[in-house]
Design brief:
mainly alpha, Ferritin, 5 helices, binds MU-OXO-diiron
């Protein structure tokens, strides 16, 4: 039995994951239009991961016998001044998401809901990686500065990222 407070918090998190997907999709489109297809690929893969998170949380609520609620996904910003600004915004957004996830973990503890606590811990760990990846890219872009050759090198590296369904492997949180 999952309490209404946690159904609401997890439903809000589904919305936040879909907003994240939408945000990264717009960023991917901006990077693509600016000629950085590799960076666009990295952001596109990121958007797919966020959608997988949203589906995963929805499935968890259904498994717990709860009805998720779905609300409007707000529109993300449509343009960015630079690739560096995009990744600064990615980092800030992931820090915001980490706060939301931590609040769900705290609520699950207060409500004595060990199943939700166990479920959300996968996301607590995931957020460490999400922030670290974004932080690393902001640092790289700071070092790159105005050097367009180095930026194209980074673009080529980020073209290699592939989407791997985080929940396809056995043993992940479910
Ligand atoms: Fe769903 Fe970027 O965390």
């Amino acid at each position: 039995m999952i309490k209404d407070s946690l159904i609401k918090a997890l439903s809000d998190q589904i919305n936040a994951e879909y907003y994240s997907a939408y945000l990264y999709l717009t960023m991917s489109a901006c990077a693509d239009r600016a000629g950085y297809r590799g960076i666009a690929n990295w952001l596109f893969v990121q958007a797919k991961e966020e959608m997988a998170h949203g589906v995963h949380i929805c499935q968890h609520l259904l498994e717990r016998g709860a009805a998720p609620s779905f609300s409007e996904v707000k529109a993300p910003p449509a343009s960015y001044k630079s690739i560096k600004e995009i990744f600064e915004k990615v980092l800030a957004h992931e820090q915001y998401v980490s706060e939301k996830i931590n609040k769900i973990a705290s609520l699950a503890m207060r409500e004595d809901d060990h199943a939700t606590y166990n479920f959300i811990m996968w996301y607590v760990n995931e957020q460490v990686e999400e922030e670290s990846n974004a932080d690393d890219l902001v640092a790289k872009l700071t070092n790159i500065g105005d050097n367009s050759g180095l930026l194209y090198n980074l673009d080529a590296q980020l073209a290699a990222r592939q989407f791997i369904d985080p929940f396809a492997a056995a043993g992940t949180a479910n």
